[in-house]
Design goal:
Strand order of the largest sheet: 2-11-9-4-7-6
Oligomer: single chain
Order of helices and strands: EEEEEHEEEEEE
Structural class: mainly beta
Helix content: under 10%
Strand content: 35-45%
Radius of gyration: 23 Å
């Protein structure tokens, strides 16, 4: 049992609340040289897509995700008549694996097609597909990467319509 006294000069305390919410947006692009590629062997048969996150910086423990809808194009990525390789999901996974070691590198869940950027890691990811000569007469097939939905742990995540889709045409 006892008593405690608080001197008048120290009877108030100040607490600071740090807001870690951030607003980010996602965009997908295809390199200019890869917007139209050829099935014929040569130097013009690869397209590089880039998914980028812009806006505020993610605070420690925060992450932002975007769903890559990879099934909208008319070109195929499997079977005897495959028009390009690797499959888009495999291209994304290979691009992540090729990054310099960093525990905060982006991650990709192929089952949900979700690409996640983490605090302290890169804010963009580029992946490449190469047209394959399937010996079929084609009238122009497309490889399409569409950003379907975005989310973030703390903050807001958006996908502007103008930057939600990138298309490469295989001729």
């Amino acid at each position: 049992e006892g008593t405690a006294t608080i001197p008048v000069a120290t009877s108030t305390a100040t607490a600071t609340i740090t807001d870690t919410d951030v607003a980010v947006s996602f965009a997908v692009t295809v390199d200019a040289a890869g917007a139209s590629i050829s099935e014929e062997d040569g130097s013009d048969n690869a397209s590089t897509f880039t998914v980028a996150m812009s806006g505020g910086t993610l605070a420690a423990g925060n992450s932002a995700s975007v769903v890559l809808d990879l099934n909208n194009g008319t070109a195929t990525d499997s079977g005897l008549g495959a028009d390009y390789s690797p499959a888009l999901a495999a291209a994304v996974a290979a691009a992540i694996a090729a990054l310099p070691a960093n525990p905060n590198n982006p991650t990709y869940d192929a089952a949900t097609q979700t690409l996640t950027f983490h605090a302290g890691g890169p804010t963009s990811l580029s992946f490449t597909v190469t047209a394959t000569n399937d010996d079929e007469l084609d009238s122009g097939e497309t490889v399409v990467v569409h950003l379907a939905s975005a989310s973030i742990v703390e903050g807001t995540a958006t996908i502007p319509v103008a930057t939600s889709t990138a298309t490469a045409t295989i001729t």
